[in-house]
Every structure is written in C-alpha cells, then in structure tokens.
Design goal:
BirA Bifunctional Protein, domain 2; alpha+beta; disordered C terminus; 208 residues; 7-stranded mixed β-sheet
Length: 208
Amino acid sequence: MIHVRHFGLVDYEETLASMTGFTEKRSPDTPDEIWILEHSPVFTLGLAADRSHLLAPGDIPVVQVDRGGQVTYHGPGQLVVYTLVNLKRAGLTIRNLVSGLETSVIDTVARYGIEAHSRSDAPGVYVGEAKLASIGLRIRRGCSYHGVALNVDMDLGPFSRINPCGFEGMPVTQLAELGGPRDLEQVGSDLVLRLQESIRAREPLSGR
C-alpha cells in the first residue's frame, strides 16, 4: 500500500520537518507515502553543496538541507513529489529509486509529446540541454525521503540566481514552454501513477 497525500502550497522548512519526523517514527510495517505539493519560493542547498553556486539569492530564503546534490530552486508552479519509501521492503536500491523517478518523469512528459532524457553525469530529467526536473534524495534508517521537482508553469527567473544543481550556465525549462499542460493536478496524477507502478514493480528483497 502506498498512500498518496496532497498538500497544496506549503512552506519548505515545515515540510522538511514533517518528512524527517515521519521517517524517524515509522516502523517496518508503516505504509510508504508519496507527497504531492508546491513550495513557496526557496533555494535549497544539499549536504555537500558548494555555496559558490548560490550567485545572488536576494530576498529568497536559503535553506541548508540533508539531501544529496547541490543548489536548486523551488517555487509556485513547480510540482514537487516526495517519495517516503522503505527501500528494503520495496526491493529498491538508491540507484533503482533515482532511475524510477527519472523514468517516471520521462514517461509522463512523453504523454504530452515531449521527448526527455536522463544523463549519466547528473541526476534529473532534461529536454535537449535544458533541465526539466531535479532529483535529490536522503536515505535514513533504510528509508528514503525528498524526491523530484518537475517544472510545470512557474517563474523560472530565480534559476538565473544560481548554478542549477552546480552546473554553470545550465538552461532550465518547464512544461508550459514545451507545449505541455499547465495544470499541476493533472501532471501530478499522471506522474504519481507511473511512480507507483515503478515502485510496485520491484520484488521484495526479504528471503533472498
């Protein structure tokens, strides 16, 4: 059973506290959850992030977080999907989950006539050279949290204040500029369906 929860537009730090609290308190029998939401404007820095990639944050808050990866931006109009998954029970490695997130996004946007791809040198999903979705995860007590952020219909301007994911000059795009849907609810439903299929497709590791 994977529970799907919708939160709407929420504060980043409050959501991070909820994710870490859920992960700390969950038992081996706690159902996995997928959280669908948007964040108020915020820059986040991963555990090993180089602050030099934060060029000009201005009045947008900057939060140091416990996920992998460098710096990224979250804001209204971006679909954020957090995957709170017991990896061992799901039969998933970290690489499996990253690939599942990437493939789920690629398959979802293909429905909209958009050809996207992953890259071996940088997690995420790209259209041409432009980044469409960012991925960052944290594994604690054998369980994942954080997840994927897919640009749907947002102000991309703040990305110019950073080197997205640590890559200088990397262009950023979104579904609204690629002829895709602007409705986050529709995109969220399509993406979560594929993500659930990806997680459930794995056989449990117990007994091996």
